[in-house]
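Help! Submission page says 'invalid entity' but I think these are all valid:
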Amino acid sequence: MSVDVISSAAVKPVAAQSMKAPSSSKSETGVTFGQLLSNALGDVNKLQLDANQASVNLATGKVQDISEAVIATEKASMALQLTMQVRNKVIDAYQEIMRMQV
Amino acid sequence: MLDSILSSAPANILEKALSSSALRQQVISNNIANVNTPGFKRSTVSFEDKLQQAMNQTQLPLVRTHQNHLAAEKFEGSMEPSVVVDNTTSMRVDGNNVDIDKEMASLAKNSIYYSAVAQQMNKYYGILKSAIREGK
């Protein structure tokens, strides 16, 4: 009973997001791919800066809550790894196209 | 280029925090070891407040141009930890002022702080490493 509630609550937002994302990008013609990319990179950069600030706050004893710093750093690390993987895939795709015989 | 990685602000601050935490471990151990020494006064390490001050420094530091000038603690603005002897209190008649419960509590606090800072430092360099290895 309770498991159903949890799983439905956990699944719903993801499903709603994945349904919404294509339609919103289709309707918004204003955002170009380049802007999307630079926004995403800006988000990743912000996460890195937040993580650095959290580490410094921990070292100076400003935050008593260690979890705050750990979570910020974990988020930053994950975001960077995702970015690197997307970059690698893009470069692979580019090289695949360049190798194509015309 | 390597300098900008190794001496960037977060790396520097975390490094200083780690070494001051190690120093605090020694000082607390010394306090605990001397819990029964007559006349012994406990020492503490002051670091976090000084680091905070050094980072928030907006006014120029007060320079001592002569050795007889009085040192101004407030404007020191250095990130070095300092050991302060607490001469003001006395726990027992023999002049010793070590409170063993307090020392054990600060020991536990310090070890949590040390491992948290070490973990943050590990992660910080891990992020840089993964960028260097192109995410592989």
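Support: the input was valid. A stray whitespace character was the problem, and the output above is from the cleaned input. Chain A has three helices and no strands.
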